[in-house]
Each structure stands twice: as C-alpha cells, then as structure tokens.
Amino acid sequence: MAEQVKSFRDLKVWQRAMDLVPEIYRIARQFPSHERFGLSDQIRRAAVSIPSNVAEGHSRRHTREFIHHLSIARGSLAELHTLLLLALRLQYLKDQELSAIEQMLIDLRMPLYALISRLEAKP
Q1: What is the pLDDT of residues 15-72, one digit of tens each?
Q2: Model pLDDT, residue 26
Q3: Long-range own/partner contacts, residues 68-76 (CB < 8 A, 24 or more apart)
Q4: Structural domain contains residue 25
Q5: Domain span at 18
Q6: Which of 1, 60, 92, 95 to pair with 120, CA 20 to 30 A apart?
Q7: Which residue in 79, 83, 65 sits closest to 119, CA to CA?
Q8: Is residue 2 part of a domain?
Q9: Higher pLDDT, 109 or 37
C-alpha cells in the first residue's frame, strides 16, 4: 500500500529535485568567473525552480493548480538539461560530469511525468 503524502516533503519527485540542486551548484561553481551572472546563474535558477514548483503546487488547493506547477517544474527540468548541454559545448562541463547529472535528470523526469499523468487521470 502506498504511503500517505502529508507534505510536499513526502513526494519522491521533490526529494530527488532537492538532491539535484546541490550537484548543480557544485558544477556551476566550476564555471569561469565571467559566467557568474550568466549561464551559471541561469542553471542554478532552473534547478531551484524544480523543487520549488513541486512544493508550491502541492500546497495549492486544487489538483489542476498542482498539475500546472508540476508542468512548470517539467519545463524547468528541460531548461536545465538544455543549459547543461550548452555548458558542455562551451567546455565548462566535462562529458562525465554531464553523464552523471543526466542520470539524475532521468531519475527525476520519469516520476515527475508519472505523477502528472496520475493526477491528470483523476476524475
């Protein structure tokens, strides 16, 4: 039987998104100093947006609002992936670093999409 979700903190997608953020910050610290307010900042903001939107959506009153915020989190996840691919092209990131983060993105994306699908299927 599934455990009762009492708080956004009980959601696996929120937990995985929270695990992702420190890794993104660690990687962004390695970027050149001239990127401090550019790509690095944008990457951090996209990463932080994911758990923030999951938490905000869960705290809303209606399922439709939750789905809307999960959709924003899904968009931020895609934005983050794109920005990391740009960082790779700009040689701010190594292939192996990206591979490890991409696995975390997959591990987050799958349950996020599943949660959205489950909520959309509710009567």
Answers
A1: 999 999 999 999 999 999 998 889 999 999 999 999 999 999 999 989 999 999 999 9
A2: 96
A3: 70/13, 70/112, 70/115, 70/116, 70/119, 71/116, 73/13, 73/17, 73/49, 73/112, 74/109, 74/112, 74/113, 74/116, 76/46, 76/47, 76/49, 76/50
A4: yes
A5: 9-121
A6: 1
A7: 65
A8: no
A9: 109
- What's the pLDDT at 108? 97
In a domain, 3, yes or no: no
Task: Give yes or no for a contact between 21 and 51, defined as CB atoms under 8 angstroms apart.
Answer: yes
Say if 99 falls within a structural domain: yes
Residue bearing tokens 């905000």: 56
**What CATH number is attached to the domain comprising 21?**
1.20.1440.60
Rounded-to-integer distance, Cα 95 and Cα 32, Å: 17
Place of tokens 């997959």: 106
- Residues whose CB is less than 8 angstroms from the CB of residue 57 and which lie 6 or more positions away in sequence, other chains included: 65, 66, 67, 68, 69, 70, 72, 73
Residue 121 has pLDDT above 80, yes or no: yes
Best CA proximity match to 41, nearest among 71, 9, 83, 7: 83
Q: Structurally, how many domains does the chain consist of?
A: 1
